[in-house]
Amino acid sequence: MSEAGRVPSPAAPPEVAAAAPDDRKGKEPEREKLPPIVSAGAGATAGLDRGSKGQISTFSSFISTVNQKKEAAENRSSPTHLVFPNIKNVRDLPPICLDVRQKQRISTEASSSEMKAPVLPEPVLPNQPKTIKDFQEDTEKAKSSGDWKAVHDFYLTTFDSFPELNAAFKKDATTSFNTIEDSGINAKFVNAVYDALLNTPQDIQKTVLKGIINSLLREWKGPRTKDDLRAYFILLQNPQFNNTSTYVIYAHLLRQIATLVEADHHFLVHWFKKLSQKRFKQLVERLLQFISLRLFPAKPEEFPPITKCSWWIPSASKVLSLLNTANSLVHPPLIPYTDFYNSTLDHIDLMEEYHTWQSFGNSHRFSFCQYPFVISIAAKKIIIQRDSEQQMISIARQSLVDKVSRRQRPDMNMLFLNMKVRRTHLVSDSLDELTRKRADLKKKLKVTFVGEAGLDMGGLTKEWFLLLIRQIFHPDYGMFTYHKDSHCHWFSSFKCDNYSEFRLVGILMGLAVYNSITLDIRFPPCCYKKLLSPPIIPSDQNTPVGICSVTTDDLCQIMPELAHGLSELLSYEGNVEEDFYSTFQVFQEEFGIIKSYNLKPGGDKIPVTNQNRKEYVQLYVDFLLNKSIYKQFAAFYYGFHSVCASNALMLLRPEEVEILVCGSPELDMHALQRSTQYDGYAKTDLTIRYFWDVVLGFPLDLQKKLLHFTTGSDRVPVGGMADLNFKISKNETSTNWLPVAHTCFNQLCLPPYKSKKDLKQKLIIGISNSEGFGLE
């Protein structure tokens, strides 16, 4: 598998991992170094095996229930609700033989389009002459006449076995379809059959489930054929599995898919990505619901005891990981990565999951941390905060013990990272303090401005961050370049003797995450991808850090015009060498001097041609985003990780790190209204009613300006608007005055304006011209 189990894409989600044989049982797992996150096959498989032993009983009671048909009138009265009594007595299906798994694991992204797995001869399929038109005509006739025999016979035959499924839905029964590019399945026919299924009488729906049971009960003696994979692919889309009464069957289907060899998973992943957005989303939602209801069942008696089906959740999580990887291979993704979040997990003991993962990694103990894409950013923030708090307490306790052991008087200040800085020397003093107190970075932060009385209850800390960030990112300071087209900052490539100030910025970002402060920083997404490359500081100091795979898409987020020009070069139909007359060289201006850099050895003598232009563009982008700023970014990387050195970072996507640092761009002003506190006003006062009428009617850009005016950032903390602790105070001044903001306390001071028009006019003037004032 690739490092940290990630596929090479801008989103960089966790990779699919093969379910490996659980040959580690009885051995103490290595604890010195955590394995990659989602080499979770071993953990998932072990979870499956764990639940399958010592619980084999007859399946006859369940099948006999499915076989019983009710009277026709009763069957048609509730076509979508299936009842399976005694579901707790269902035995497990026989586990798939693990000895057929390939010993050599093949990573998904490295596999060729023609997977070199054993290609077994496809069996001769039964004859299935039905077409989608025939099926739809039979269904319409059945609805009008009430005679469902033809439809019943179709479902009975089609779902009787894997070969019958292939006979019905394969586009061409005579073609093998052994490539990842084409599953060979008639998707429209599958959709039509499933869309009609829930509106058929119950005896037909039970017939389908009985056929699925019979197929899953087969003893498998060897590797799967591609027809078997097609059958799994088709069955997984069955909408009947939305119903909790089918969950026992669904769970066994998921386990068989989860324990396939990785070569088979590779095919499924590439077939999944060809699904429509609607069908793909349905699969994800069905699996998330399955996990949620197994964790918190509405009717516990509806499922077998958790001790007898401990493999349910690992199986579903593994299949979800296949869908997550498929989603990451499509650009743009079929669904947002947030659609994989399972908010139910916010209500479980996340730290127990985290500690299980830390202790056992991806071995024989299942943890949701093996599949971090299902953990919401809010839940990850809780894990990071708790982990940070534990580290803070540990560091503070050690300081106290050291003090007592030396018979020195304990001082409460030793429990904090105390920063004493002068406003006139803010950057240099901050750098000196952080350098001297490097051992205290994981303590709670407290800031004091020299010569000013004041107790830091959070306001001074936030002001320190605001002032320091504003000064460091000012264009005149020269550390970062602001790109107007993309509205973001990027690292200056100017060479210097000391990169300690870049380390300071990294420490600031780390302290912000550590102390739950939202920063008003505008880095492109590429920055956070580099920040997680790798997510844990390597033990070998010679290992490069902050280097990641970059494309013109990444460059477009910083320098859109240049990225567009390079894309035009790639698509140019003329003679590149003669028309562009370029070489493998880059020219940059540094302090008024033009300097040239070769993109490869002897690059100044290598012309860019139609044949090598892709290499030129890739080297150009890599130079701009990696090599030319390596020392700057490496200092920044080490600064950030000196504070946030935690295995919890391995759970995060680059986009999630950005949200932790800068907050979310999604604004919900109604949520802000509900959570706002008042001082001198009541929420029913006329001025307050005017205020919310005006603000809720603002366009998004003005709402962002209001948030920036009052909090110092136009983004929202991970916990939502409620975490802002927004307050509106009454300003007993003339109504001719503009509103005033105390950004350090997220407080808006509002004069008692007499009319909505006057309030709107003054508020717009205040929030639109706040640069240079309003910071208290």
UniProtKB/TrEMBL annotation:
Query: Does Mitochondrion appear among the keywords?
Result: no
Q: In which pathway does it act?
A: Protein modification; protein ubiquitination
Q: Which UniProt keywords apply?
A: Phosphoprotein, Transferase, Ubl conjugation pathway
**Membrane: is it a keyword of this entry?**
no
From the UniProt record, which GO molecular function terms apply?
A: ubiquitin protein ligase activity
Coiled-coil region: none
- Name under which the protein is recorded: Probable E3 ubiquitin-protein ligase HECTD2
Encoding gene, per UniProt annotation: HECTD2
